[in-house]
Amino acid sequence: MADELRRTQAYLRMAQQHAHTADAERAEMEAQLLTERAVSARANARAARSQAEAVTAQAAVAGVRRLCEMTISDSVRVQAVAQARDTLAVIDSITEGQPLPGDAAWHSVWLHGDWRWLTKNMTTPEREHAADAVARYSAHLNAEDPDLEAEIDGLRWWRENGR
After folding, report:
1. CA distances from 102 to 76, 131, 138 (A)
2. Cα dist from 75 to 61, 69, 78, 79, whole Å
3. pTM score of the predicted model
């Protein structure tokens, strides 16, 4: 009976040691999982920050472009018009006609979504931004494949309705 009691106690100690070892391994695995999640979250945050910076830069370039185009069309000052043309030339040389980040997504929305419904609750500047992206990406596709249709009917529907 004493041997059986000692054997049972030995099994109990072994089971407790195994349980502690399993708990420690599980805790280590959970710590590794949380570490990997943190690494992933940091990577996602960096990507989101980069995307936000790209969108901000894109909006700034679009604003400068609009200002230059307005200056060229409306200004009587020769020097201002020349400077605006020079600025546009620099912008064009940097972007080289390549689509900007997000243009392909807007183009996909244009092709496969209900464009009017999607843009009806946007402000006019938001609509113009989305339409510019679609036009840029469409021009990019047309440059790569001249057989594609260049016409984009209804893209700026709010202009057609006088809104």
Report:
1. 36, 12, 13
2. 20, 10, 8, 9
3. 0.43
Q: Could you report the per-residue pLDDT of 38-86, keeping only the tens digit for each?
A: 888 887 777 777 777 878 888 888 889 889 999 998 888 999 999 999 8
Q: CA distances (Å), 150 to each of 131, 137, 140, 141, in order?
A: 14, 11, 10, 9
Structure tokens at 12: 């109990």
Q: Is 147 helix (H, G, I), strand (E, B) or coil?
A: coil
Least confident of 26-30, 49-53, 100-104, 142-146: 142-146
| Phi/psi at 153 (5° precision) | -75, 135
Alpha helical stretches, state H, 75-102: 78-95
Buried b (16+ CB within 10 A) or exposed e, 28-67: eeeeeeeeeeeeeeeeeeeeeeeeeeeeeebeeebeebee
User: Can you tell me the distance from the alpha carbon of 30 to that of 52, in angstroms, rounded to the nearest whole number?
Assistant: 32
CA distances from 10 to 30, 32, 65 (A): 30, 33, 81
* pLDDT value of position 117: 92
